[in-house]
Amino acid sequence: MSAKHHEKMYTFLRGYASGAGMYETMKALAFAREKHCGQLRKSGDPYIVHPLTMACDAVSMGIKDDVTVAAILLHDVCEDCGVSLAELPVSDAVKRAVELMTFQIMEGETKEIAKNRYYNMLATSREASMVKLIDRCHNVSSMAGTFSVEKLKAYIEETRQYVLPLLRRVKDLYPEEADILFVLKYHIVSVVDSIEATMAVYEKT
Predict the structure, then answer these.
(1) Model-level pTM?
(2) Computed from CA positions of residues 42, 46, 49, 50, in that sequence, does the dihedral angle turn out positive or negative?
(3) For residues 148 and 42, what is the distance between their CA atoms, to the nearest angstrom?
(4) N or C: which end of the chain has fewer CB within 10 A?
């Protein structure tokens, strides 16, 4: 993706947030670009493309909540950029969503126990849940051609074991998000099913 394209996304989001009075999003936008500067995705794209695309997708689906969009932009900053929650220039509500999105294995935990705790905690926050689901939607859309076969299988397994159950739980907890959740589920399941079918064909040849 060209630098020009992600600058267009940045400019669009800044203008949208300014016009809508989304001040948390405006602060998050500048901070995320600064902290992700120089980082690349496995695809070779600048890392900032990921949160920018997620935020644009969220806005296009009708998400206008300032906390959610700001958390989307900052969701990987603590985990990937060595930034503490205290350093985030946003409200406590945004920090809480980012904290819930940040996966950590606590002392004495296995990875599976940590994942169960992580996904259970995500469900306690509408904002963090929506960020996670939009994150997974974008990641499954961009993983073909960049992940190894082993990584694809593991990511798909995690999606089926944890992410789709989270989606169903969020639908029950936050029925006002039903339309957006339908779109996210349709996209995630369609992509995952297609990749699995393609891998099955190649494994037979």
Answers:
(1) 0.95
(2) positive
(3) 11
(4) C
